[in-house]
Write a structure and sequence with these properties.
The chain is globular, with a radius of gyration of 22 Å. Strands 1, 2, 3, 4, 5, 6, 7, 8, 9, 10, 11, 12 and 13 form a 13-stranded mixed beta sheet that branches. It has helices spanning about 35-40, 55-60, 90-95, 120-135, 150-160, 185-190, 195-205, 220-235, 240, 250-265, 310-320, 365-395; strands at about 25-30, 70-75, 80-90, 100, 115, 140-145, 165-175, 210-215, 270-275, 280-290, 290-300, 330, 345-355. It has twelve helices and 13 strands. It folds into two domains: about 25-175 and about 350-395, Aminopeptidase (3-Layer(aba) Sandwich), CATH 3.40.630; about 180-325, Gcn5-related N-acetyltransferase (GNAT) (Aminopeptidase), CATH 3.40.630. β2 and β3 (about 80-90) form a beta hairpin. α2 runs antiparallel to α10 (about 250-265) and α8 runs antiparallel to α10. It has about 400 residues and is α+β, with helices and mostly antiparallel strands.
């Protein structure tokens, strides 16, 4: 890869097998989706998305943010599950009383649906048809990977139905090509020689105070205490000051502990820590599905900010990821233009909102898409205003 390359009506809630070779979809309560079939789908997807793994999605729906619940559009070929996307109503997502379904769940920076690699187009089409059958005129996939095979499957399924999706909030976020081999050259090409030299100087400065070590928790016995250290470190930083740390709300704390226990028991979660004399100074949560990893969360000791412990952790983690022969790509899950990760990881993922009308010739779908796009812009403007006011207050003595 090069620096500029872009990686580009409610149905019964019981499982009734359809005829083999006939792809269909139903909307189910997410808690009623059969876990074995869901897990099997995750192992066969055309494009990984750990945030729609059952261990993550069920915890997000039932615990995070107060546990508001969710449904799932589920596609089947006979009894085999071939597609899935968790959804909530437009009212839950946007406070809009309109007939639309939105693939939105707490703490999920990616909404690419799970599609069986052998049935991707049929599964994508079934999800669209299932949304329509449930009464929705629009299916919204926020933060969808726009350049991957799942998006291509949806484009084909849309064309087969005479439909056209709208794209909004298109942007790129950092990713890491984990097949890279020469990490010194990789870092130098992204950060520049001067910045890389400065980071090494700061690493030595940190080491002046003792032994600096990277450790990884990847078993249930080690993950639980490592998660507690992560939550404590996060709570002592700026997120804790604003009350937005993962462990600060009861439901959110229950969510991340449930996710860690579930994914950790299946080798799908690793917590990496940079320690100084045995004390954690930076830590990150890395999630995993098939040949893709997701750098989900990071926290660091802000009292050591002069040594950039978060950057030091990311550099060491990057080397560790490159040494894993089973990995191909790591999604930073970061905002576009992130001031730290964008200068370290050189690859980019095309991300955006995909708004899919579900019925050909129906003007309601495109009209709802435009309404939701306008709603998003209004909310973004409100957030900018809140951020501006907060920055002024924080500057006051």
């Amino acid at each position: 890869m090069t620096n500029s390359q872009t990686l580009a009506i409610m149905q019964p809630r019981t499982m009734i097998a359809g005829a083999p070779g006939v792809t269909h979809a139903r909307k189910l309560d997410i808690a009623a989706v059969p876990r074995p079939a869901w897990t099997a789908l995750c192992a066969a997807v055309i494009e990984p998305n750990i945030f729609f793994d059952p261990g993550f999605s069920t915890a997000a729906a039932t615990m995070a943010g107060g546990g508001r619940g969710a449904d799932a559009l589920v596609a089947f070929d006979g009894s085999r599950m071939t597609g899935l996307v968790p959804v909530v109503s437009a009212w839950q997502a946007f406070r809009l009383p309109v007939p639309a379904l939105v693939a939105l769940q707490p703490y999920s920076p990616l909404s690419t649906p799970l599609l069986d690699a052998d049935h991707a187009v049929a599964a994508a089409g079934a999800l669209i048809d299932g949304a329509a059958a449930s009464g929705a005129h629009l299916l919204v996939l926020p933060d969808m990977a726009l350049a991957g095979p799942a998006a291509a499957a949806f484009r084909t399924a849309l064309a087969e139905r005479g439909l056209a999706a709208l794209t909004d909030h298109a942007h790129e976020r950092a990713a890491f090509d984990a097949t890279s081999t020469d990490m010194d050259e990789y870092f130098r090409a992204g950060m520049g020689s001067k910045k890389l030299k400065e980071m090494r100087r700061l690493r030595n400065r940190l080491a002046d105070d003792g032994d600096v070590t990277l450790i990884a928790a990847d078993t249930p016995a080690t993950i639980a205490p490592a998660l507690d250290r992560f939550l404590d470190l996060e709570a002592r930083g700026w997120k804790g000051a604003r009350g937005t740390g993962l462990g600060q709300a009861k439901g959110d704390a229950a969510f991340i502990h449930a996710v860690a226990a579930d994914l950790g028991a299946r080798g799908a979660l690793q917590i990496v820590e940079l320690t100084l004399n045995g004390t954690t100074v930076a830590t990150g949560l890395v999630l995993r599905q098939r040949d893709r990893a997701f750098f989900f969360k990071i926290a660091y000791d802000e009292s050591l900010g002069r040594c950039s412990p978060g950057v030091q952790l990311t550099l060491e983690l990057t080397k560790r990821l490159a040494d894993d022969p089973t990995l191909k790509l790591v999604d930073s899950t970061a905002d576009a233009g992130h001031p730290m990760i964008d200068h370290i990881w050189r690859e980019r993922l095309a991300i955006g909102d995909l708004l899919i009308p579900t019925r050909s010739g129906d003007p309601a779908g495109p009209a709802l898409a435009k309404l939701i796009m306008a709603r998003r812009r209004a909310r973004e403007e409100a957030k900018r205003l809140v951020k501006f006011v907060r920055s002024i207050r924080e500057k006051k003595p």
